[in-house]
């Protein structure tokens, strides 16, 4: 699968979750949607930071490199918000506001990446079609081996993020499973 197509599909999936969040007033449903957003955005950011951004960075200069660096910084801010949302009860007075700020920032990030002069356009110019396909295949294969929870203090660039990625991913998935079991036994648990 083409790397840009894979990332664009991730964008559409998260946008759909944002709309579902806006359409409900039920705190349990908001928590469930937020948990999905946290997991999907965490995986998406890791795939971009471990694979897509380095591939683009190696082939572009000037504004293309600036686009990558800006993307990394936007990811960092998103990870902080995701980390906070992960710990905040859906009934907290600022939960909806924090989610709204996150969604607005993500939608801005998506718009920039997909714009005519954005990083996806940079990648289409800098990488050959077969390179984008191979990159997308590697990203898809790595989807289950990258962290699935936000780690705002973790390094965002290779090689450290790749070295830490798999052990952290295993721990993240264990935590996600434990949270699911806890919520099944104790409704209302975060």
Attribute tags:
190 residues, Four Helix Bundle (Hemerythrin (Met), subunit A), 7 helices
Quick take:
The chain contains 7 helices and no strands. With 190 residues, the chain is mostly helical.
What is the level-2 CATH architecture name?
Up-down Bundle
Number of domains: 1
Structural shape:
globular
Q: Beta-sheet strand percentage?
A: under 5%
Question: What is the gyration radius calculated from CA atoms?
Answer: 17 Å
What's the CATH class label? Mainly Alpha
Total helix count? 7
Kindly, what is the distance between the CA atoms of the first and last residues, rounded to a whole number of angstroms? 35 Å
| Low-confidence blocks of residues | none
Order of helices and strands: HHHHHHH
Work out the helicity level: over 70%
Q: How many distinct beta strands?
A: 0
Query: What about the largest sheet?
Result: none
CATH level-3 fold name:
Four Helix Bundle (Hemerythrin (Met), subunit A)
Mean pLDDT: 88
- Class computed from helices, strands and strand pairing: mainly alpha
